[in-house]
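Ticket #4471: structure output looks truncated?

Reporter: J.K.
Steps to reproduce: submitted the chain below (141 residues) through the standard prediction queue, then opened the result file.
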Amino acid sequence: MTAYRNLRWTSKVGLLLLMGLLSSCLKLLKPGHPISKEMPPLAPDYSNAANWAALPTRLDSADTVPYGSNLRDQQQNASADVFFVHPTTYYRRKTWNAALDDELVNKITDREVIRKQASVFNAAGQIYAPRYRQATLYAFF
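Returned output as attached by the reporter:
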């Protein structure tokens, strides 16, 4: 019984320490000005292919399949469309929202999220993944 109480107490202390650490880390992501003082980036023009992280009509990260597998990108033959809205990859504190042409954000989005998440659908559908004015991660807390 004593061991169980010690484990519960240790777990609670560990959880409190973890919450404190995460709280401190989040403060590092908070922009130095209120969102009300910021002009939002320009709205996306989705008729411009550059404003898409993935389109079935071009070669992009959504076309990736695991190396050495028998899987193939089947988007050209797919009868369904997949509209993939990726999670935020904007972690800076300079502004509350990333610009659509932010090269670092787009590189992370393409290489890490589109390639590793959206591409799983390329055998079943044509993948459309828009770029958008991502909120900094701090905005979600």
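Triage note (M.O.): checked the attachment and the full token line is present. The longest helix spans residues 2-29.
Status: closed, working as intended.
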